[in-house]
């Protein structure tokens, strides 16, 4: 268990345990890094976390950076990537259609952000949800702006 998150609320610890068990049951590793950002593969941009689907020949992964991050940010990032995992697991049509760019990507990220916040609330994790929502809105505004400029 990650030390800084294990000092969180009981609800956050229970959520983390549940996520780990669900991911493991579907051949997905959960990794936290002591970095500010992570990169899926060489040559791709740095991100605040990612989910890579499992393949026949390898386990999948959710990777979340932790350096200089508040617990609320780490938990929100984890919930976001876990929601991508749930979309993959349920064979979500929108998730399967997005290609990482364009309007379909913005739409799936909007859906994922809303689902992540709802998931954290469902688990009764004590967070400043106004701050979480502000960060979410800023992220989505950045995506929309990037799409307009491309």
Task: Report the portion of residues in β strands.
Answer: 5-15%
Strand order in the largest sheet: 1-5-4
The rounded Rg comes to: 15 Å
Q: What is the H-and-E element order?
A: HHEEEEEHHHH
How is this structure best summarized?
The chain has 150 residues and is α+β, with helices and mostly antiparallel strands. It has 6 helices and 5 strands; from the N terminus they run ααβββββαααα.
Give an overview of the whole structure.
The chain has 150 residues and is an alpha+beta fold. The chain has one domain. 57% of the residues lie in helices and 13% in strands. It is built from six helices and five strands. The strands form two sheets. It has a three-stranded mixed beta sheet with strand order 1-5-4. A two-stranded antiparallel sheet has the order 2-3. Helix 3 (71-89) crosses helix 5 (102-122) and helix 5 packs antiparallel against helix 6. The longest helix has 21 residues, at 102-122. It is globular. It starts with a helix and ends with a helix. The model has no long low-confidence stretch (mean pLDDT 89).
Question: Features of this protein?
Answer:
150 residues; alpha+beta; two-stranded antiparallel sheet; 6 helices; 5 strands; 13% strand; globular
């Amino acid at each position: 268990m990650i030390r800084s998150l294990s000092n969180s609320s009981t609800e956050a610890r229970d959520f983390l345990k549940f996520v780990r068990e669900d991911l493991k049951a579907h051949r997905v590793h959960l990794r936290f890094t002591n970095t500010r950002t992570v990169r899926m593969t060489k040559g791709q941009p740095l991100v605040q976390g990612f989910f890579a689907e499992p393949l026949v020949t390898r386990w999948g992964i959710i990777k979340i950076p932790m350096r200089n991050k508040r617990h609320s940010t780490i938990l929100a990032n984890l919930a976001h990537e876990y929601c991508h995992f749930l979309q993959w697991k349920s064979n979500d049509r929108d998730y399967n259609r997005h290609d990482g760019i364009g309007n379909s990507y913005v739409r799936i990220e909007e859906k994922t952000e809303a689902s992540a916040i709802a998931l954290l609330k469902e688990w009764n994790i004590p967070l400043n949800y106004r701050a979480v929502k502000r960060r979410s809105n800023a992220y989505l505004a950045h995506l929309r702006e990037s799409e307009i400029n491309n």
